[in-house]
Amino acid sequence: MHAAVVTTFGHAPTWQEFAEPTPADGEVVVEVVAAGLHPRVRSQADGSHYTSEGALPLVPGVDGVGRFPDGSLRYFAVASDTRGSMAERVAVDPRASVALPDGADPVTIAGGANPVMSSWVALRRRIAFEPGSRVLVLGATGASGTAAVQVAKHLGASHVVASGRDEARLAALRELGADVVVPLDDVEGVAAAAADVDVVVDYVWGQPAADVMRALVTARSDRGRRLDWVAIGSTAGQEARIPSAALRASGLTIVGSGQGSVGRAAFVAELPGIVAAIADGTIRVDATGVRFAEVEAAWAGQGAAGAGRVVLTA
């Protein structure tokens, strides 16, 4: 078979012949229809993701849509860090999959499930999110942040503040459920608009998150009321300088959400709701299909997709 193969960290994968997958106990071999080129996949391919084992060669890809042996079309997650979904075939545990609703677009599902999952699982599994909660999304103009605005509203948020760097995309988020939009570099504006939120969904981390955190804690009308800050991404840096006073003098609680902090069973349990919400258009996803054989060009051109997601297709 053929697969997108990484032989050197830091270089794009190439479409080449690769050994057929050997399924472990409980796995089946799936014909891959579509696989998303997510930031998580990029970090897998360059060895920088915190779960990376440093093993080469590897086939990237953490999820996708595939044709299972029984003929069903299903969204699936991949367990292996080295035998991913960017291949003609992949070994998958059927328990980590969900059937696509009739008429669902495989490219949209493959492009949307991963970014939608990040905030969905964070709100459902990492904190006690209550309907009526107020939410701030930092990094709202990327694919995951755009999805987070919609996810928060879908799960019952009464008010969503969206903040990001791209002001044109930021303005468009009003149509997707954002009640207020504020540029990320306007720290005081973000703090004023989100002074009384209950939850922060953070895709940026780094210095911007630290700056907003300090300003937000200061701006709150009741500093003792609980504020759940959920760190999901780190587009602005892996480290953030947070003064201890921000924790001691407020109800601020910081948690992370991702592989390790959320078990595999919890992710799998949320898949049906995630796939259904994408399939019926409740959560809108911008995804573009590119043939597997064009993986090198797709890798180099990912930035041109903006807030959308590139999906490799059979």
Care to count the β-strands?
Answer: 15
Helical fraction equals 25-40%
Q: Given the helix and strand composition, which structural class is it?
A: alpha/beta
Q: Rg from C-alpha positions? A: 20 Å
Average pLDDT works out at 94
| Regions with little confidence, pLDDT below 50 for 5+ residues | none
The SSE order reads EEEHEEEEHEHEHEHEHEHEHEHE
| Biggest sheet statistics | 7 strands, mixed
Distance between the termini: 12 Å
Molecular shape: globular
Beta-strand content: 15-25%
Counting H and I runs of at least 4 residues, what is the number of helices?
9
Nutshell version of this structure?
The protein is an alpha/beta fold and 314 residues long. Helices cover 30% and strands 24% of the residues.
Structural overview:
By secondary structure, this protein is of the alpha/beta class. Helices cover about 30% and strands about 25% of the residues. It contains 9 helices and 15 strands. The protein has helices at about 40-45, 105-125, 145-155, 165-170, 185-195, 205-220, 245-250, 265-280, 295-300; strands spanning about 1-5, 15, 30-35, 65, 75, 90, 95-100, 135-140, 160-165, 180-185, 200, 225-230, 250-255, 285-290, 310-314. The strands form 3 sheets. Strands 3, 4, 5, 6, 7, 14 and 15 form a 7-stranded mixed sheet that branches. Helix 2 packs across helix 8 (about 265-280). The model has no long low-confidence stretch (mean pLDDT about 95).
